[in-house]
Amino acid sequence: xxxxxxxxxxxxxxxxxxxxxxxxxxxxxxxxxxxxxxxxxxxxxxxxxxxxxxxxxxxxxxxxxxxxxxxxxxxxxxxxxxxxxxxxxxxxxxxxxxxxxxxxxxxxxxxxxxxxxxxxxxxxxxxxxxxxxxxxxxxxxxxxxxxxxxxxxxxxxxxxxxxxxxxxxxxxxxxxxxxxxxxxxxxxxxxxxxxxxxxxxxxxxxxxxxxxxxxxxxxxxxxxxxxxxxxxxxxxxxxxxxxxxxxxxxxxxxxxxxxxxxxxxxxxxxxxxxxxxxxxxxxxxxxxxxxxxxxxxxxxxxxxxxxxxxxxxxxxxxxxxxxxxxxx
Length: 328
What we know:
- The protein has 15 helices and no strands.
- With about 325 residues, it is an all-alpha fold.
- It has a domain at about 95-285: MetI-like fold (Orthogonal Bundle), CATH 1.10.3720.
- Helix 2 packs antiparallel against helix 3 and helix 11 runs antiparallel to helix 14.
């Protein structure tokens, strides 16, 4: 087992390095250059030198005169020492800006993850138990509707209904205009109310896939021979589902959930931008569109590492769920 974990860790390191190189190359080739934008702004100021002079100075200052491989080597060496540099767009250290905004994303995505698991798994199991019944058809329609609707459409629809028509919730933001005048409980309640639509958007956007996945795998398990044997022994249906069927359904679910957490952090960029939540997704969108290479690279590396950790955790959980993996 330890040898397997060591090999898996070495593979993860290779993927992280290679993935970071691709991200760095793509960011360097983007048309939105921070250096060019700043050079254009400074060249319009009275008494400033020409655009080309300022561009040459800024290019040398920010290391944009290096090749992609050379620039990535310098960035990688600094990253290994924990020196992520300063954000060009926000003019603060990258790690400080990350620490300031990551709390919003963690709260948003963790709440969404638990809510999604609490809804999708029971819905998928109920649909499989009542195959081709009213429950199955209802769950299928809901799941297909959630899969078909894009995130920006769901967010716009929720805004139109609950903000514009009903006036129950604010259109965007994480706090209201009277936030500073509230007590501790009132501030917590105000933030919770502002999180309703973003959490609902992310949950609905991911509801269909996990529900259908749970239903499909549950149907395969319920048609297995050992399930028919358990029922023939006279075991209650609750015991058959909870102790025999659901445990074997966990194996493919772990595979699916291993992609869920990093997918939520990367996919929340759209939701955070639409609702203007100052989380890591919205801040990274501003940094990328502004050509902020240090922060964009930190965010890309963060997602790559998070993905590899999630996959490694899934591989280890296989042994906890499936005895055959422990034997092998």
